[in-house]
Amino acid sequence: MDSMERNTQVTDFLREITEKLNKKLETIEASLVEGQKDIERMHDYYWENYTEMDQYGYENYDNQQALLGQVNANQELILLRRRIRKMQKSPFFGRVDFCYEGEEDPETFYIGIANFAERAGMTPLVYDWRAPVSELFYDYDKGPASYQAPAGVMEGEITSKWQYKIRNGRLIYAFESDTKIDDEILKEELGTNGDVKLKNIVRTIQKEQNAIIRNTRDKILAIQGVAGSGKTSVALHRIAYLLYHDRENLTSSDVLILSPNSVFADYISHILPELGEEPVQEMSFDLFTYRELKDTAPDCEDRYHQLERMMKFPDKEREERYQQKQSEEMAGQIEGFLAILEDSLLNFRDIEYKGLKKTESELIQLFYFKFQNIPLLARMDAVREYVTDEYETLRGRELSEEEAEVVCQKFASLYVTTDIYQIYNWLMEFAGYPALPDVPYERRLIEYEDAAPMLYLKYRLLGKGAHKRTKHLIIDEMQDYSYMQYLILAELFSCSMTILGDRFQTMDHASQDVMQFLPRIFGKKVRKIYLNKSYRNTLEISRYAAELQTAAGAPEQFLARHGKEVAESAFSSVDDLLDQVVKELRLQKEDGYETAAVLAMTEDEAHDIYMLLKNRSVSVSYIDRDSTSFHPGLTVTTFYLAKGLEFDQVFTVYEENGNPLLPQARYICATRALHELYMYRLEPEKRDR
What angle do CA 315, 317, 323 make, to 5 degrees? Predict the structure, then answer.
């Protein structure tokens, strides 16, 4: 069959599938209308008859269950309608002709964003990209191939494989691929302008990415990937795959993403809905820490406070202290401190109240022996409950609420203090660090260097049950989590995890390879995976960024997509620099871009640039730590808030001021650029602003 016949065949199939999708949509719309009428009838029946329903409530219960069933059925139809509407725009993107072993003629499988069959139980006309047969598309070239089906391994031969681009129901191109996801397709896809949302990659998943996405064997995947290797996309597609294959045990509400900030969360929020799944929960570790320490201090710094301080006021001694407090050695010091804390934390004495009596020696026996495995600050509650149960059994009556409160206070008073802040200061003295200010609760501020060790100490003293509702955890930007923070995560989550990051995008002075210590925290169940090919930037930008990152481990492979050379310029004033930014911007031109960014080193610098651009009547958005969304056009923000995002054009503004974090900041900025990168240096001695 020649290429013209092939194109005619796929065009005919596209027309056929589009007609069937349209009919399916009409059926869904009619069912939704009828379902809504049923809901209204049930409501009317209830209000007309609820006074006459049987006294035991059986009829009322049946009516409510029927109503709930119809509401759920309508909700399922709404989700199906959403999926069909997406498929109308692009019903499929790939095709595999596969001849099963022992057969003469190949079968054709079209691959798309979701399964589509005319009716339930019928053979799909289009197969979901997560279906077993779709492995043929992602993992094999022409020739011998196999896939794991529910009935076992299916072997045979791929006779042809095609890739398509369909936009708004129209075939843009058809490309016969002798190799998996050809580089020309990748260049076409990745060479398009940056959207304000992360792109889904179902049409361009690479073999090494597919192995991660479909991995259901390993409990914890730790993915070390270079900038632009698709780490975040792969993690989200993996979640979509796991949800598809384990519907009975895993739902979207069971998944939690720990993301760097709210803007990044907004940037990736559409991926799962595009893949036919509901959005998942998201939060930052810093917000979680703040909430957990709220009863210890009213305010708690986050990572961005720490970064701003490092950029504005570099302090080697303070930075070393910060690193020490996050380290494995600090965890050991906490354990040593806990071993001797019991002697100074408790003041045992006899307890007596209305016939309830325990001597000091009896309390010591219970505390140190019977309940020795309960965390220290929770242990006295266990002793109190034991003594109270014993008393109530002997007396044959329960304590009243008022009596129970008095008894509770008596047992609690055996602690010298239960204030985590005060106990943490004892730890600082024990470990040889300066104490935190001795101030009342309302004046306390927990600096970032103390937040993680204080939270870990709190959990060791009080215990913390695992988040059993969370069945899968995604940790993004893994290089920015300290050893102490991983100890906390191991305490909180016993579920499966996808952990991902790039050690060279660390926001510390030196890169941290968490892959070295993760197995010591989570055990042998950690599977390490490395992604060394960058797909994001042009070859010119990739090479420039690699030169900035002199340490071994920068991208080993690049997608050969060429573009404009990186522009480096020096300016004596911010005004001159911004003149050049406005001159180079391509947002409003005929072949213009969707996104551009000016990336500064600190929040103050970013805000100043934002205001100066606004004063020039430039349409511009500003992202700070409180922002929650990412917009098209020109954005001004800091290098650290841009992590994980990508822009068509990036303008980096920096000074050569000797800050040890500057090389990392410049590298992060450079790797944000898809097509054009401008590195603009301000010369401090000549600046007029």
Answer: 100
